[in-house]
Fold this protein.
Amino acid sequence: MAGLPGAGKSTLLERVYRLRGDETGPVPIDGGWVIDSRQARNRWALRLGPLPVRAWVPLVNATHVWWIARAVLRGEGVVAHTRGTWPHILHLFSWLAGRHGARVHLVLIDVDPGTALAGQVARGRVVTAVTFARHCRRWRPLVRRARDGAVPPAATVSLLNRAEADGLRAIKLG
């Protein structure tokens, strides 16, 4: 699951899987795991609390990607919040899944930058203007490819607007 920062990825995972938001690791579900970057942030907050949050980012991102990769390497299903604007990560997950005969299915939550920024403010965690601008620049081409029906190396891509994402009630693995 991908979208601009503040698009509603964590909110969707929280609603669909009844996450509390205070989890410090992947959450087991029938057939796999739900992995949200907030889980890694919560895990590291216990140890890195006094440091500026920006200092945590590389460690949080590495932990989040590792948790997803580890589950995929074990051949387990994963519903994960990931950065669609980092194509090398999508290629990594697709390659790892392919080693187990599985495929990546991508869900994109497409909201305009103003809505995403409002989502960041509402959650109390705003990315820097430079980071947000970079995400926005990379997001538009990804959405164009999704509208054309393909985002290689994902096997399928579903493009949802905010209302469609808000109406989603289940994500089935397998």
